[in-house]
Amino acid sequence: MDPWNSAQDVVRCTLCRDSVAPMYCEICHIHLCKDCVEKHLSDSSKVHNVVSLKQYCTTLTYPKCCKHPTKQCELHCEDCDIPVCTKCISSGKHFGHKYVDIFKHFVEQKEVLQQKLKELEQSIFPKYIEIASNIQVQKDDLSINSKKLTTAINEQGEVWHREIDSIVTNLKSNVEEMESKHRVILNKQGDEITRTVSEIKESIVDLKKTLNSRDVCLISKYMYKSRNAELRKLPSILKVSLPNFMPEKIDRDQLIKMFGSLSALFFTTEEQDYSMSMQEAESVPPDWSLIDVARVITTVHTSCEYLYGVAYLNDTELWTRGVDNMMNLYNLQGELVKSIQTKSKNAPQDIAVTRSGDLLYTDGKDKTVNIMKNTQIQTMIRLQGWSPRGICNTSFGDLLVVMYSDYDKQTKVVRYSGSTEKQSIQFNDKGHPIYSSVGYKYISENRNLDICVSDGGARAVVVVNQAGKFRFTYTGPPSNTKGSFDPVGIATDSQSQILTADHSNHCIHILDQDGHFLCFIDNCCLEYPWGLCVDNRDNLFVTECDKGVVKKIQYCM
After folding, report:
1. H or E stretch including 47?
2. Closest CA to 480 of 520, 534, 430, 434
């Protein structure tokens, strides 16, 4: 087959997009008609090398067929997205498939790549440079704001110190004043008693002197006047209740509230966009879209009798968990690479993988969150009164953990930085619980930083924003032809779309970031899907819990 002749009527001029293009610029990678060659060469900003398209085609290297090494591939199978030779076609393996001349496919792909290159150079790259330059501005603003906050805190501390010093001074002054008043009264009474004692002493001396006398007249009752009757009336004893200092118990929370507090640090994302000309926009095909019919790319058979969780490690390996106390690492060929037993020998409630590739798992019975580093399991978080369930790693390296209170009376989502609690999400603005207190619950952070929870007890997907403010609840599509929504595993993709496994209805629901239903994945022979995760290319991994199988599904392109 002559690729030049077979593609002659489909190769059009890149500039005018109407005329047949017999010429090709090897530098700019564009097709040119004769009328546009001169116009293209007039651009002196770069060197051009325009040759005939036929000459260019003769220098192309066509691929060898992987099935028939002696054959050259002259066609491209669009269904299989691979080059094929005529022998492949005649074998019947591609019966019913759509295929095109490989040169036509080559031309189309080069045009797409050229447009992508242009888009990268002229639109995307400058935007990234602009965003990168803005980071230093943000760093400077961060330093200024931190100094400003520190100054304000110090000033408030000085105000509090002055107020406390004033309170202490006043109390000391009151003590001195009370002591002075009390001392005056005691001194007055003391003086009176001292005077009376002196008088009593004089009376005793006089009385003894009289008793020793032989003078009848001196001891006569008419001559001696006794004061005993007067002195029998003892002076009043002054009783004083001495003052006490009763310090108030310091309520640290109230103290912090009175002193002042820092508002929470939250990160929000501002969607960036770049503008293209209408012609550029029309020439660039969409990079991402849902496909009409999802397809199973790979099926991984594990040795687990029941398989509930899957976590993406890299392009060739997956962590899984079942009903036992083992967490298993499989490659995509179904070969067991590694097995790890939980520290407590309890079954893990959920698993996740950090950005650095470490395995995380929650232990509901032991009430711990654990991490495996270099084959060693470390306990990161130990809870009291709460039991951890679903877990995910965030884009900023935090952990989001779903947890139930003892006796399953309450549910909340807690954000941790390492082992430090940063945020707790439990109630809406009206004080009502956001999540049900029963049922399975799994969690995922969306690209827009929303927190998405599949709430089995509420038969819903519940979404709050990064600050924990309620956004929406999804309970199934508006016109649901399936049974009652039964959500379990949940994941999000690069387009901020939410995917959740509908266990009882053997399908996956795909929602946009605002909770609008987009479509089902229900054509991949799924049986009781449970755990979900998405890889870096937006391939979906689904566990079929009753089969111990993980399916890798392509649902977008």
Report:
1. none
2. 520
CA-based Rg of the chain, rounded to a whole angstrom?
A: 44
Rounded Cα distance between 416 and 500, Å, is: 24
CATH superfamily of 295-556: TolB, C-terminal domain (2.120.10.30)
How many other C-beta atoms lie within 10 A of the C-beta of residue 30?
20
Do the beta carbons of residue 542 and residue 320 sit within 8 Å? no
CA 523 from chain centre, in angstroms, equals 32
Cα–Cα distance for residue pair 254/261, rounded to 1 Å? 11
Token pair of 287 as six digits: 């990079």
Amino acid at 216: V
Domain boundaries, the chain: 141-238, 295-556
Cα torsion at 321, 530, 362, 378 (round to 10°)? 40
Query: Strand locations in 193-306, DSSP E?
Result: 290-301
DSSP structural state of residue 514: T
Q: Which residues contact residue 461 at a Cβ distance below 8 angstroms, ignoring those fewer than 6 apart?
A: 452, 453, 454, 455, 473, 474, 475, 487, 490, 498, 500, 509, 511, 515
pTM of the model: 0.56
Answer for the pair 345, 324: CB distance below 8 angstroms, yes or no: no
Q: Per residue of the chain (557 residues), give pLDDT as tens.
A: 343 344 334 578 888 888 888 888 877 878 899 889 988 998 888 888 888 877 777 667 778 888 888 888 888 887 777 888 888 888 888 887 888 888 778 777 877 887 888 888 888 888 888 888 888 888 888 899 899 999 999 999 999 999 999 999 999 999 999 889 888 888 988 898 898 899 888 888 888 887 887 777 766 654 556 777 777 888 877 777 788 888 888 777 777 778 887 766 666 555 555 554 444 444 444 456 898 899 999 999 998 889 999 999 998 999 999 999 999 999 998 999 999 999 999 999 999 999 889 999 999 999 999 999 888 999 999 999 999 999 999 988 899 999 999 988 899 999 999 999 999 999 999 999 999 999 999 999 999 999 999 999 999 999 999 999 999 999 999 887 788 999 999 999 999 999 999 999 999 999 999 999 999 999 899 999 999 999 988 999 999 999 999 999 999 98
CA distance 370 to 378: 6
Other beta carbons less than 10 A from residue 473's beta carbon: 13
Helix, strand, coil percentages in the chain from 3-state DSSP, rounded to 5: 30, 30, 40
Distance CA 360, CA 371 (A): 5
> How far apart are alpha carbons 356 and 314 in whole angstroms?
11
Distance CA 492, CA 171 (A): 62
